[in-house]
Amino acid sequence: MKALLNFVFLFTVLLISNCKSVKEEKSQANFMYKIGVEVHSGDHNYQDKLIALEINFNEKLKECNAYGKKVDLESIKVIEVNADGDSITESIAQYDLDKLLWTMEGNTPASKTRFYNILFNTTDVPSIEFSKTKLIEKLDLGSKWAFNTPSGYYVYDKKGGAFDVFAPQKCTDNEHGKDWVRR
Question: Could you give the number of structural domains in the chain?
Fold first, then answer.
């Protein structure tokens, strides 16, 4: 059975399939679990549209009879697939506070359906090594969050729901909180 969610701000309908084990699927060999997602564009055209999917991974694990297990948040991957389930591309995704965010990249015409697989492991499965950036510091700046990492300094606009700024290093001599891009 599929759960139907309607996100008013996107004017799209998302169909979310039940969680299932993917141990036998060679293309997904590094992951234990998969959730299929269908994104319907409805009557609207979209260009690089942000998808915000409310999802409770603990509930999804129960669908897989994986009681008592915890999702390895570092293992979550969103892969766009075709209607047959063949991988097209990996989407950059972020999960926080029961919301999984990713960008539906490119042009999506009206009445089009795009398919995604959300792949993940539990903490009892050894994680494969991806290029991960370690978080050194996270600052709540009111309307923004700032993330300091070894590869750069990111500013995320809470209201706009997008990354505002990237700098190769934290700007320590900015004027009253203005970053180097907006001077």
Answer: 2
User: What does the DSSP assignment read for 53-88?
Assistant: EE--HHHHHHHTT-TT--B-GGG-EEEEE-TT--EE
Calculate ∠ Cα 156-159-160, nearest 5°: 70
126 inside domain: no
Quick one: 39 exposed, middle or buried, by C-beta within 10 A (0-12, 13-18, 19+)? Answer: buried
What is d(CA 21, CA 37) in angstroms, rounded to the nearest whole number?
A: 15
Please give the pLDDT value at position 157: 79
Which range of residues forms the domain containing residue 154?
133-183
Residue 127 forms part of a structural domain: no
pLDDT tens digits, one per residue of 1-10: 333 333 333 3
Distance CA 75, CA 81 (A): 18
